[in-house]
Write a structure and sequence with these properties.
With 291 residues, the chain is mainly alpha-helical. It has helices at residues 12-15, 22-39, 48-61, 69-82, 90-113, 119-128, 136-148, 153-157, 206-218, 240-247, 260-272, 277-286, and strands spanning 174-176, 183-188, 199-203. It has twelve helices and three strands. It has a three-stranded antiparallel sheet with strand order 1-2-3.
Length: 291
């Protein structure tokens, strides 16, 4: 088994005595080495550039959050220490710490600035959106589904970057009711559900249902189950740009809106409609059908 995990840092988990975090240490060590192999870094001579590259990918995969970056960095260090492979130099370790602090500050700023994007906000934005905008149908389908389904940014796109061609939702991830008045989106593994099969979210609200159906028809995707649901350029990081572009013509401050606001806006709509907090929490955890 050791040979399957060369270079030797891949076998670190076999020796690690920290049972509580053993699987996570192993998982991050293996994925870090895989990234090094693909990006041309030497996994047995880790650098700040390689580690920050890995942490940035991890952040993108978790909705741009910096919440766990320190822990992930410590997992990598533990794997290298256990495998008796030199970790970062003091200089590189300092650079990684500076990077993590910058990401944390950015994360906190985004959370403070993000205004809930309710259905009323989206309708105002779409009213100001030019009819000939090439992304009009895409934005309506994606943003309304994300907002109504309380989706995190990563759940909304299911794609970390443009280079991962196999990532992203497929048309077959959407299943329709017989009357085409409801659709279910297979989210896969999510932050709240890491079990086999992952989560689904069922959308019954007429606005996102109509928007998604119109988008699929316009793009000729209804009969292409293996095609990407959204274009390859639609990544987690990309999602913030159209929000700012939509806000400005409607008279809103673009700096106040981030992808976090879609999830918060959907929850705000539910609370305003009379949904009690326990029911809202259950819906958020279990992906119960949004109204």
């Amino acid at each position: 088994e050791n040979e399957d995990f060369q270079p030797k840092v891949r076998a670190a988990y076999l020796l690690n005595q920290d049972k509580k975090h053993q699987k996570k240490i192993r998982s991050h060590a293996v994925r870090f080495v895989e990234l090094c192999d693909k990006a041309g870094y030497d996994p047995d001579l880790p650098t700040a550039k390689a580690v920050t590259h890995y942490l940035l990918n991890f952040s993108d995969a978790n909705d741009g959050s910096a919440k766990s970056l320190r822990q992930v960095s410590s997992y990598l260090k533990s794997a290298y220490t256990t495998a008796a492979v030199p970790w970062l130099s003091n200089t590189d370790a300092g650079l990684v710490l500076v990077f993590i602090k910058a990401m944390e500050e950015q994360d906190q700023a985004a959370t403070r600035q993000s205004v809930p994007i309710t259905s009323r906000v989206l309708l105002r934005w779409f009213t100001a959106l030019p009819a000939n905008d090439e992304h009009a149908s895409l934005l309506k389908a994606m943003l309304l589904t994300g907002q109504c389904g309380l989706l995190r940014a990563g759940e909304n796109t299911r794609r970390e970057n443009q280079k991962t061609a196999s990532a992203g939702y497929r048309v077959s991830d959407i299943s329709w009711s017989r009357e085409s008045t409801v659709f279910t989106l297979a989210l896969g593994l999510t932050k709240g559900n890491r079990s086999f099969g992952g989560d689904t979210v069922t959308i019954a609200n007429p606005m996102p249902v109509t928007a998604m159906r119109n988008y699929l028809l316009e793009k000729g995707l209804m009969d292409r189950p293996d095609a990407l649901l959204y274009p390859q350029y639609v990544t987690t990081r990309w999602l913030g740009e159209p929000l700012r572009r939509l806000a400005r013509p409607a008279g809103d401050d673009p700096a106040c809106f981030t992808p976090h606001g879609l999830r918060a806006g959907g929850a705000t709509d539910l609370v305003e409609s009379g949904v009690a907090y326990p029911a809202l929490k259950a819906q958020d955890d279990g992906k119960v059908t949004p109204a």
